[in-house]
């Protein structure tokens, strides 16, 4: 059936209109923001007032009599009760003010209970002088307890000055020591309360997406309209995509309403600077960034909701499925409120938490590029994986009202083996690869650093190879086994014409040189985002590589990556993408993914590697398509990496090539010319080598 984007748009508008007709959606979309944010602002104002310091006229201290008032004021006005300048500077530089009043009916304690005072003071006066002072605060009230603490400190400073004066008159040679204060480190930008803004926005976006997701899946099953919809002459994938667009649209409308209501409330109540701190803000630029993050999160969470509600037979059953998800979403949301939690390490790939932390960094004006990129890319992959799950469920008999399947059927192995994975299964694998590789590589690096110098370089390279096998090798393998796919066709393990091996080997003789020059130029042009410390560590590691066995270096840095990465990208993912994409679309998609996964290396963002690695991925994908096998590309990948590593190791020994290499990181021009010729010859060999047609996906029938 010939489908068009206009037909998809009509299906999406139809689903969206049906959703917006329901009054419950309008209530969530419009009324909730109008009611919630004014109430939250009033509660926040009350919290800030109760937890703040003195008011505009200072702390209000109540006493019972006028004599007590006169004495307390004289003590507080005495300059000797003021702390030293160094101590005052450490407390913000401002001296707290006190307003002493006589309590109504001469009962300061009762006035304190009536919330008319910050603290109550009782002075016992004998023979015209105070002999004792008792200060009372309201239990649990932060402002009252602060007033009591500061008042006690002021009175103790006065007593200390009196004692020192008396001691100096008795012992003239007595000297005291001075106390000074200083600060080191960078001040924390913003306030932890800035987390409340993105947290509330994310939770309200979730709330807006829940009802449409239930109504468009379980609701239709309960009403008995799902069977008629599935029987319509429209592919199920397009029906699901239309419902997905409708859910995402409602979620975004809810996010826009909440974002506008929050911005207006914070601006009108003056809470903006209090929540985001000095130097932060929520202007149009920050609102735009947060909105884009909410777009990502809405896309991810809408797919999660659709995948879960597709199993429900009724509205109530769908609610039962989603309640645990809502509760689970609260855990990372609450964790983001904790001070010291940043967008680093595994938190950068934690769903929901990474979006909240990134939004907080945007508001505070302190965004870390690596954490931000990892958070955005991982959320996109999670969205693709969740949508792939939803597509698998929506395309099965689990969508029919009389189905006896449950959510557990998602994890059952198929009874019939298939030649290759589906695009949905590939999406789930991609969604798992980034967080798994990020967590494993960072955990390995942290463990090596904690060991100090006990782990030598050969062991480090070996552990890196094992982590590569555990992520890019094991995850696709488990997906292949659980999906009951044939290994030979899934990984494209077929024999190829010997000409393809020859062409791949000749291409590798030229491709490595251009990749090497690209990395050198990126370093010289300051395109790398490494700081000086990371650059020094990298140079130190390269120096250590010169002392280890070249066999180990080539095995861990060339052979293992060539085998594992080719089986993953040009094997599993390539065969899955070929079921729905044209050849060159498949080549480009796998090449871009190949380049992206090489950008995230441990805790470092190596953007300069994206272009050369993507170009290498295009060459490897073209070889895999022309040969119909993953093996020739595996050979080119191995030779390419091996020569790069060997040139880096033996660069100092290349002086015999001429003075051009001495003190120069670039390859000699003759090498570049020879490499360019080898690359062109290899391309020609592969192009003219006869390609054997093999039954793949239907997309193979189209031209390359």
UniProtKB/TrEMBL annotation:
Keywords (A to Z) from UniProt: Membrane, Transmembrane, Transmembrane helix
Pfam families per the UniProt record, alphabetical: ABC2_membrane_2 (PF12679), Rce1-like (PF02517)
Cellular compartments per GO CC: membrane
GO biological process, one term: CAAX-box protein maturation
Transmembrane feature ranges: 26-49, 192-214, 244-268, 288-308, 320-338, 370-391, 426-445, 457-479, 499-522, 584-607, 614-639, 670-689
Keyword Nucleotide-binding found: no
Domain (CAAX prenyl protease 2/Lysostaphin resistance protein A-like): residue spans on this chain: 549-643
GO molecular function annotation: ABC-type transporter activity; endopeptidase activity
PANTHER family reported for this sequence: ABC TRANSPORTER PERMEASE (PTHR43471), ABC TRANSPORTER PERMEASE PROTEIN NATB (PTHR43471:SF3)
The name this protein goes by in its record: ABC-2 family transporter protein
Organism in which the protein naturally occurs: Allorhodopirellula solitaria
């Amino acid at each position: 059936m010939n489908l068009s984007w206009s037909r998809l748009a009509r299906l999406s508008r139809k689903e969206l209109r049906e959703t917006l007709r329901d009054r419950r959606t309008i209530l969530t979309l419009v009324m909730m923001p109008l009611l919630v944010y004014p109430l939250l602002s009033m509660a926040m104002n009350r919290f800030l007032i109760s937890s703040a310091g003195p008011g505009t006229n200072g702390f209000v201290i109540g006493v019972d009599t006028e004599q007590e008032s006169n004495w307390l004021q004289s003590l507080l006005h005495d300059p000797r009760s003021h702390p030293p300048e160094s101590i005052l500077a450490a407390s913000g530089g401002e001296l707290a003010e006190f307003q002493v009043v006589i309590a109504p009916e001469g009962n300061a304690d009762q006035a304190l209970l009536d919330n008319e005072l910050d603290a109550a003071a009782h002075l016992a006066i004998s023979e015209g002088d105070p002999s004792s002072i008792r200060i009372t605060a309201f239990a649990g009230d932060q402002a009252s307890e602060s007033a009591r603490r500061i008042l006690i400190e002021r009175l103790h400073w006065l007593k200390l000055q009196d004692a020192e004066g008396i001691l100096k008159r008795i012992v003239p040679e007595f000297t005291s020591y001075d106390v000074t204060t200083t600060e080191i480190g960078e001040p924390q930008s913003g306030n932890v309360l800035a987390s409340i803004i993105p947290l509330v926005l994310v939770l309200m976006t979730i709330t807006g997406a829940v009802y449409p997701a239930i109504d468009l899946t379980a609701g239709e099953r309960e009403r008995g309209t799902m069977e008629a919809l599935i029987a319509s002459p429209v592919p199920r994938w397009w029906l699901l995509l239309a419902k997905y667009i409708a859910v995402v649209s409602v979620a975004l409308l809810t996010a826009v309403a909440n974002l506008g209501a929050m911005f207006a409330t914070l601006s009108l109540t003056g809470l903006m600077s209090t929540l985001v701190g000095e130097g932060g803000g929520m202007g149009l630029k920050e609102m735009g960034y947060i909105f884009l993050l909410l777009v990502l999160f809405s896309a991810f969470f809408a797919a999660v909701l659709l995948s879960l509600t597709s199993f429900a037979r009724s509205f109530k059953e769908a609610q039962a499925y989603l309640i645990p998800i809502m509760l689970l979403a609260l855990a990372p949301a609450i964790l983001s409120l904790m001070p010291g939690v940043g967008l680093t390490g595994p938190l950068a790939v934690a769903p929901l938490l990474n979006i909240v932390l990134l939004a907080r960094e945007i508001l505070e004006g302190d965004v870390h590029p690596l954490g931000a990129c990892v958070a955005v890319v991982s959320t996109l992959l999670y969205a693709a994986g969740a949508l792939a799950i939803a597509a698998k469920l929506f395309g099965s008999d689990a969508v029919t009202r009389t189905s006896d399947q449950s959510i557990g059927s998602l994890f059952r192995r198929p009874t019939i083996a298939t030649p290759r994975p589906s695009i949905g299964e590939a999406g789930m694998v991609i969604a798992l690869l980034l967080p798994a590789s990020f967590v494993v590589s960072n955990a390995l690096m942290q463990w090596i650093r904690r060991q100090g110098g006990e782990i030598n370089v050969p062991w480090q390279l070996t552990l890196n190879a094992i982590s590569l096998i555990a992520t890019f090798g094991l995850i696709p393998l488990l997906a292949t086994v659980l999906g009951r796919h044939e290994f030979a066709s899934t990984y494209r393990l077929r024999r190829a014409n010997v000409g393809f091996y020859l062409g791949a080997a000749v291409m590798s003789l030229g491709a490595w040189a251009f990749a090497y020059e690209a990395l050198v130029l990126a370093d010289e042009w300051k395109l790398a985002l490494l700081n000086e410390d990371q650059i020094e560590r990298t140079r130190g590691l390269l120096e250590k590589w010169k002392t280890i066995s070249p066999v180990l270096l080539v095995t861990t840095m060339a052979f293992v990556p060539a085998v594992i990465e080719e089986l993953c990208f040009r094997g599993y993912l390539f065969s899955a993408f070929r079921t729905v994409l044209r050849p060159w679309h498949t080549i480009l998609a796998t090449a871009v993914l190949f380049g992206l996964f090489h950008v995230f290396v441990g805790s470092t963002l190596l953007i300069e590697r994206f272009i050369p690695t993507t170009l290498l991925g295009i060459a490897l994908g073209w070889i895999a398509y022309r040969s119909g096998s993953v093996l020739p590309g595996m050979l080119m990948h191995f030779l390419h990496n091996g020569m790069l590593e060997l040139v880096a190791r033996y660069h100092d020994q290349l002086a015999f090539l001429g003075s051009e290499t001495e003190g120069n990181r670039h390859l000699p021009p003759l090498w570049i010319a020879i490499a360019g010729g080898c690359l062109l010859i290899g391309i020609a060999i592969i192009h003219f080598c006869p390609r054997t047609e093999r039954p793949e996906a239907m997309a193979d029938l189209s031209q390359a």
